[in-house]
Amino acid sequence: MEIINAIGRRKAAVARVYIREGKGVITVNDKEMKTYFPLETLQYIVEQPINVLELGGRYDIKANLAGGGVKGQAEALRLAISRALVKIDESNKPKLKAEGFMTRDPREVERKKPGRPKARKRFQFSKR
């Protein structure tokens, strides 16, 4: 089987994924997933599409992550893995779509406006 690649994004994070048949090893930026994502919740997010399709131990996943924070990176990686699994077998799509893994979350950080401390926050109003 050739290597299947896919891309996933979330907030400022970008995940590039390369999947091939193997023993189920997930490598992120040349580190094992459990060392890159030490929190169990983040590991769970990354493994969700594999667990839903019950494909544990069938594919080796190599991922390159850039930008954003750890949560955004984990969710970008989940989207990329889902897209790659659909490329492998189109019949996986309905299950992944029902779980919401095929939808790119479009929410981005709102820009800071001039004359304000943050995007929507205003300075404290003083009547006198």
List the helices and strands and how they pair.
Elements: E1 4-10, E2 13-21, E3 26-28, E4 31-32, H1 33-36, H2 40-52, E5 59-66, H3 70-88, H4 93-99
Parallel strand pairs: 3-5
Antiparallel strand pairs: 1-2, 2-5, 3-4
Helix pairs in contact: 2-3
Task: Summarize this structure briefly.
It contains 4 helices and 5 strands; from the N terminus they run E-E-E-E-H-H-E-H-H. It is of the alpha+beta class and 128 residues long. It has a 5-stranded mixed sheet.
Tell me what the structure shows.
It is a single chain. The protein is α+β, with helices and mostly antiparallel strands. It has 4 helices and 5 strands, in the order E-E-E-E-H-H-E-H-H. It has a 5-stranded mixed β-sheet. A hairpin with a 2-residue loop joins strand 1 (4-10) and strand 2. The longest helix has 19 residues, at 70-88. The radius of gyration is 18 Å and the shape is elongated. The mean pLDDT is 93.
- Approximate strand percentage: 15-25%
Tally the structural domains: 1
Tell me about the largest β-sheet.
5 strands, mixed
Which stretches are low in confidence, meaning pLDDT under 50 for 5 or more residues running?
Answer: none
Number of strands: 5
CATH topology: the name is: Ribosomal Protein S5, domain 2
Oligomer: single chain
What is the annotated CATH architecture? 2-Layer Sandwich
